[in-house]
Write a structure and sequence with these properties.
Elements (H helix, E strand, L loop, with lengths): L46 H13 L5 E3 L22 H6 L5 E7 L4 E5 L2 E5 L1 E8 L4 E8 L1
Antiparallel strand pairs: 1-2, 2-5, 3-4, 5-6
Amino acid sequence: GAVVMSIFHKGQVVNKKTKDTCPSNICTEIALPPVDTQKNMQWFLSEYTANSYGYAAYRAGHFDLTVTPPMVPRTTTLKLNTQALAAYLPDLAAKHPNKELSLRIEAVSIPKFTFKPGFVQVHADVKVSLNLFGGVNLAVFTSAF
């Protein structure tokens, strides 16, 4: 007969530095489906794994980033400058003509992953700040994605 080896892994992602585990109200453990002993390997990904990753990455600051003009590909039509946003923010373009902008994006809550048949839903609250590149904060708004 075939030799079957099972390695059960909880599926939790933990930050190496803080080593804190995801609280049960954020990361709800679920039972894995039955194992098919006729297959060489089975791999399961659950909301538990995705949400523990979101928790660890959020706590480590991995969902905070700043986009600067040099980071935007030259081939794109939208540029990070006041002229490109003149139609949306005309007062800004008039006050600071042809100035480069940076975009600061920060997660303000732990992202929540929900698995649905055929897709994964992710909800995250973020704060977006628009700044003169190398200058002062111009506008802040928050939005949920």
